[in-house]
User: Fold Glycine reductase from Cytobacillus oceanisediminis.
Amino acid sequence: MKLEMGYFHVQDIVFGEKTFFENGILTINKEEALNIVLQDENITYADLIIAKEGDPIRITPVKDAVEPRCKVSGGVMFPGVTNKLVPVGQGRTHVLKGSCVLAVGKHWGGFQDGLIDMSGPGAKQTMFSQLNNICLVADTNEDFEKNQQQKKNKALRWAALRLAEYVGNCVKDLEPEELDVYEHLPLVQRSKEVRELPSVVYVLQLQSQMLENGYNALVYGWDTNHMLPTLMNPNELLDGAIVSGSFMPSSSKISTYQHANNATIKRLMEEHGKTINFLGAIVSNLNVQLEEKQRSAFFVRQIATSLGAQGAIVAEEGYGNPDSDFILVVDELEDAGIKVVGITNECTGRDGKSQPLVDLSEKANAIVSTGNVSQFIKLPPMEIVIGELESLARDGNSGGWAESVLPDGSIEMENNGVFCADSSTGNHYKTVVEY
Assistant:
């Protein structure tokens, strides 16, 4: 399976009479773009606001992030979600690199929604402060969700997907500035030299703890609560086969943007044929009941051993209850003779002295920490707020509380509520070091 990714590097975003890309500048016809958003009758208000790196801007409540892209050949964007169900991971995809669509609530937030600061100390907490962001600020008539701690946010999240594709289509017929090629051959077609390298598999544990449809991560549009661990070609993940769910404390969430830019997968692909034989990605789920957790762990072990894996990277989306799924998979793989490196955040309390994971094992002896969700942070006021700052304290944000927002607009909160601050794909620069 061969995938070409053509990159167009966005240096600035402005509004204009038509949507086009030229000389590093992305120009967007705002009225036309909003018409794409308002195709959903559930959206009652929508606006677009540009937020760039270094701007004195605070954005909240953020619900998802999507990279503007278009398929030139070999599939569609977001298959099984906003477009028909067809395979992806092959052909050519064009990408407006350095830009991002953020789905932002005009008023209502919740447990799963986060905050992004484009400058100041808060900007160091999340990678999205470094991008040129197209903030889709919208409200909906989904009144049943407004007072719920957990929200599906479907209308706004799906609108962000459509908007990202609309913007991405402006480079469909252009020649990219840079081209990356990802080719993942079947195991039997690999050369003897590649097959003799250490064989490594990547295990991605997606959040899927909600029994009702609409909250969990989607694979080709399929709710991951209803799936068993599945072997996927890594090209499929890089080409948009996974859409982020709404259920997950914000700092631990893997956004749709990060799924399609999974830095761990990209590095494994880069090392393939040089230092490792990269076998593929096992996409797994995170469950609630112990029997479900054990079943998934058994399937991960069976797939990995059938492939002949000697090493594995296991990445967990979230913390708390999912830690038991994470540790079960590590134990199963280690018992099968497969060496494991885990990637996860931790919940060690504000003083850093609490147990980092709910479940532990002596076999989990190589873990990369992506941060402490309980880290206490103080953020100064910002000149501009996109969305509604009060939602952080009012609507049950996972890192906020009733007194989080101070009268001068400054914030006291936990890292838990910073958008994708410590998700496990490697798309960040923050970690915890043990001395």
